[in-house]
């Protein structure tokens, strides 16, 4: 896929005091990219766009280079002990992006340049009473989507490679892995590729790496000895869904050599779900969406604070779970299925 290139970049003054901020400023200036120095509070009003589609699309082509101010990390159960960010947002256009409800109508991408301060904070969050403390770096954005610009994930993997009692977890839909293959990661970073059938990726996950690119990237990560996993999400029912998910597992089995890591391959399985709020966003931003959001064919799943989402009926969910589980265990008998939800 074509690597992301922002149409405009905003720099906060404070970001220029850090080596990465200074480097990025010079880089974009030399490239002739539109640059604006502005506090983050002004960014939204400076991004063009009138209609919801224009605002969304302009935001996705805007990068903000800034400083991560809050260095107190949130708990990130069940995926990890803590989460931290190198990047917030992502240039991808997945119709059902999990970040919708946390973003403004102009979902710009933020990258943080105070990497050393983030590393200091990681050290402070390591629980000395535990053997291992785990950190998730992809809860609020896809760190690989801008890695070709920042190089921050490579530094973070190297940093974790030298920590005995901490592990890093990454999730991505991108394939820009080549610069990560020769890092001394020591098996301390687990990569999980968010993957799906061809139909789902091609129709709903715009401007992310495609089916073949993600699998090829996963194969490279496996060959470099990283612990590896897959998040198959969102799993959807459509014509020939079984054939296409079978193709996914068969392709993984042909392409992957998982023998270099001592840790088992992991799978996380998530059925398609939507909330009324997410459906409104989707219909506003992707008026021609092919997503099946017919609530009459779903049941309600209640969450905290009286919120609910639409999920497949119990029998359908059980069929998805059973089918995907049989594909995985039949293809990778030593793999671990962490959960189906
Ligand atoms: S890749 Fe992830 S973060 Fe980016 S748009 Fe898709 S779901 Fe959202």
* SSE series: EHEHHEEEEEEHEHHEEHEHEHEHEEHE
- Extract low-pLDDT stretches: none
Beta-strand percent range: 15-25%
| Helix-residue proportion | 25-40%
Strand order of the largest sheet: 4-5-9-10-11-13-14-17
Number of H/I helices:
11
Average pLDDT rating: 96
CA radius of gyration: 20 Å
State the major sheet: 8 strands, mixed
The rounded distance between the terminal residues' Cα atoms is 30 Å
**Shape call:** globular
The count of DSSP E runs of length 2 or more, i.e. the number of strands, is 17
- Content-based structural category: alpha/beta
The distinct ligands, each listed once, are: iron/sulfur cluster
Account of the 3D structure:
By secondary structure, this protein is of the alpha/beta class. It has helices at residues 19-31, 40-46, 52-60, 115-125, 147-150, 152-161, 198-204, 211-223, 241-255, 276-285, 314-331; strands at 8-11, 34-37, 62-66, 74-76, 80-83, 87-88, 93-94, 109-112, 133-136, 166-172, 189-195, 205-206, 228-235, 266-271, 299-302, 308-311, 336-340. It has eleven helices and 17 strands. Strands 4-5-9-10-11-13-14-17 form an eight-stranded mixed beta sheet. Strands 2-1-3-8-6 form a five-stranded mixed beta sheet. β15 (299-302) and β16 (308-311) form a beta hairpin. The chain is globular, with a radius of gyration of 20 Å. Bound molecules: iron/sulfur cluster. Iron/sulfur cluster (SF4) binds at residues 90, 92, 94, 97-99, 141-142, 173, 208.
């Amino acid at each position: 896929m074509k690597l992301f290139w922002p149409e405009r970049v905003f720099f906060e003054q404070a970001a220029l005091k850090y080596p990465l901020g200074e480097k990025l400023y010079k880089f974009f200036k030399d490239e002739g990219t539109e640059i604006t120095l502005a506090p983050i509070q002004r960014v939204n009003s400076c991004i063009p766009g009138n209609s919801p589609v224009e605002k969304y699309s302009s935001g996705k082509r805007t990068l903000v280079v800034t400083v991560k101010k809050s260095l107190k990390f949130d708990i990130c159960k069940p995926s990890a002990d803590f989460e931290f960010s190198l990047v917030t947002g992502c240039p991808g256009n997945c119709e059902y992006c999990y970040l919708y409800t946390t973003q403004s109508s102009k979902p710009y991408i933020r990258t943080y340049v105070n990497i050393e301060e983030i590393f200091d904070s990681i050290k402070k969050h390591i629980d000395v009473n535990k053997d291992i403390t785990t950190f998730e770096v992809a809860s609020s954005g896809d760190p690989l989507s801008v890695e070709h610009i920042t190089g921050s994930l490579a530094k973070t993997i190297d940093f974790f490679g030298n920590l005995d009692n901490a592990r890093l977890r990454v999730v991505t839909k991108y394939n820009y892995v080549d610069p990560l293959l020769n890092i001394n990661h020591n098996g301390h970073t687990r990569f999980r590729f968010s993957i799906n059938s061809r139909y789902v990726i091609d129709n709903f996950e715009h401007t992310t790496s495609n089916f073949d690119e993600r699998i090829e990237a996963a194969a490279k990560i496996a060959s470099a000895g990283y612990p590896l996993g897959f998040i198959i999400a969102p799993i959807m029912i459509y014509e020939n869904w079984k054939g296409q998910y079978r193709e996914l597992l068969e392709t993984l089995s042909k392409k992957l050599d998982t023998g270099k890591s001592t840790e088992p391959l992991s799978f996380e399985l998530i059925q398609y779900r939507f909330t009324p709020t997410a459906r409104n966003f989707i219909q506003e931003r992707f008026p021609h969406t092919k997503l099946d959001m017919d609530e009459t064919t779903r049941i309600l799943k209640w969450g905290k604070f009286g919120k609910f989402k639409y999920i497949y009926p119990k029998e359908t969910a059980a069929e998805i779970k059973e089918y995907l589980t049989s594909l995985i265990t039949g293809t990778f008998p030593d793999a671990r299925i962490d959960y189906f939800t």
